[in-house]
Amino acid sequence: MIKLGNILDRVFGGCKSTFANCMVMIMVKNKNFISLKQVSINNGFWSYYLKLIKDVMIPYQWEALNDRVPDAEPSHVIKNFKIAAGEIQGEFAGMVFQDSDLYKWLEAVSYSLIAYPDAELERTADEVIDLIAKVQQSDGYLNTYFTIKEPDKKWSNLKDCHELYCAGHLIEAAVAYYEATGKKKLLDVACRFADHIDPVFGPESHKKKGYPGHEEIELALIKLYKVTNNSRYLNLSKYFIDERGKKPLYFEIEAYNRGIKNIHNIWGELGKKYFQVHLPVREQTTAEGHAVRAVYLYSGMADVALETGDQSLIDACKRLWDNLTKKRMYVTGSIGSMSIGESLTFDYDLPNDTNYSETCASVGLVFFAHRMLQIDPDRQYSDVMERALYNTVISGMSLDGKKFFYVNPLEVWPEACEKNKVKSHVKYTRQPWFGCACCPPNIARLLTSLGKYIYSKKAKEVFVHLYVDSELKEKISESEVNIKQSTQYPWDEKIIIDIDSKKETEFTLSIRIPGWCKEAKVKVNNNEIDLDSVMEKGYAKINRRWKHDSLEIYLSMPVMRIKANPNVREDEGKVAIQRGPIVYCLEEVDNGKNLNNIVLPRNCEFEIKKDKDLNDVCVIETDAFREKYEDWNDELYKSDVKVSYEKTRVRFVPYFAWANRTPGEMEVWVREK
């Protein structure tokens, strides 16, 4: 069967931009696709963050992109675009991938406009889009670094120069802005750029056999394919996935072409694994290298697998998922245990005080988990998605939305961070901005698009992956169906889901019973469901004819002591405190110095309280002991040491809320007595 896109491609021939413009008007109607416009987040936990991003983060980041935030590192982004557009004179400044900060900001703006229409913000976005279009060259190429600094070296160093990475973020922003506003200008820019890239790369003999050093365009091309139905974009994404890791390695070929004769020196101390090119992707079994690049690659693999039905790619994704989440992930849903190369290392190597755990890596982990859910609706994916969202992702921003963590440690000793260079990457206060500012706009674009992650659909089945006070409007069997969640989750154990259908409609509502929950109850119209009879892969599948019905879900949330696999040496003899999806930590401001001296008795009772100073989060208090040493004097080492235990009251706060008060020590894993 010939696809409509292929027919039109033949009709329009070489006139690719005209083809792209025409194809935008012929949207693919994926019956299983849930648009962000179908979901509204009304109240509760996540509405705070969406409003914070709209009111604070988006304006603040706009000021940062324009270098107008006092005492923050300059961004140079808008200045670079104005120089490239010929509006002002100057030299390129910042990272080679600096353009991507603007594209991620635009993507967040797009999603925010869906929830909160704002004419002034939309005008600002339109002006930015005009500037971006002005920078685009006649052949479709668009990158301020190469336009300003090295115009004769385009596509000559894919390994290091992030051209395809920036192109990917441009495409994602363009698709998001088109979906939000219906305006095509940025989408036309993205299509022209993609149409420029397509003849450059591919398996054909006259094309470069290259692929990105930093994966990202793979995900973006799938989005562009879905919105245009142009199969060339799908094929190009598939090519980048298929070619990666094949011998001879393209990064060595391009280095040789640049005059580097000893190509073995190009890899750096982390080698080929850093770039995920050590093996073809279908042969990779362990999550390796730069953590963000890795999960972006795996997300792209899952996207291509879902669109093509490639079982070998699905199998590879599942192997990589298992290794990543069962042997290389922190309890907070962060990944990347080594600061050198912001990288993954080896199984169970999960140090708490030197880890990197880049915020962007957890954002990417959410992307990967969400895509795996589309392939196989299994609780293991939504559990990890939830863990990363509620812990590391929002730890990356302060409660006022104006400061950010790039690195997310699980243990902090401020003096060591300042004086021990091994820990110099670890900060105990969030920063107003970064020279490499990938994380703040990444948080913003993920959270403003959160509605896409709550629900999914598969034929006559609607999945509830996340418990968020929200409403989904969906058409099922030609009937308009509203699914509304009302909840104070994650603080409260109760969720109400109201179903309102215009006519009686049969479908399956599949609700996730989280893996951390040991006692759950579900009632439909006050009649309790036998969960054992309806559970499948962690979801309670309730099939019935729905019209005006109500579900009551109860998820027991006792305070839990989490232990790490014995192979995680740093956590031996320690516990982490978790309630619901929230991981907790100790802070010096509540518990004094030397948190390492605190010991939890095994039989202590926990008390849950609300803290108004931390946005009404639930904090946990309990009686513990502080280890005391007598007769130590000034000796550094001693044999006969008397140890006593002094009773003390300790207070745990959610990990995401740490470092919002007086700076000091922090600790997730606590010794157990």
TrEMBL record:
Residues 462-557 form the Non-reducing end beta-L-arabinofuranosidase-like GH127 middle domain. It comes from the Bacteria. PANTHER family: DUF1680 DOMAIN PROTEIN (AFU_ORTHOLOGUE AFUA_1G08910). Gene3D superfamilies: 1.50.10.20. It comes from Thermoanaerobacterium thermosaccharolyticum (strain ATCC 7956 / DSM 571 / NCIMB 9385 / NCA 3814 / NCTC 13789 / WDCM 00135 / 2032) (Clostridium thermosaccharolyticum). GO terms for biological process: carbohydrate metabolic process. Residues 38-451 form the Non-reducing end beta-L-arabinofuranosidase-like GH127 catalytic domain. Pfam families: Beta-AFase-like_GH127_cat (PF07944), Glyco_hydro127C (PF20737), Glyco_hydro127M (PF20736). This is Glycoside hydrolase family 127 protein. Signal peptide: none annotated. Residues 559-671 form the Non-reducing end beta-L-arabinofuranosidase-like GH127 C-terminal domain.
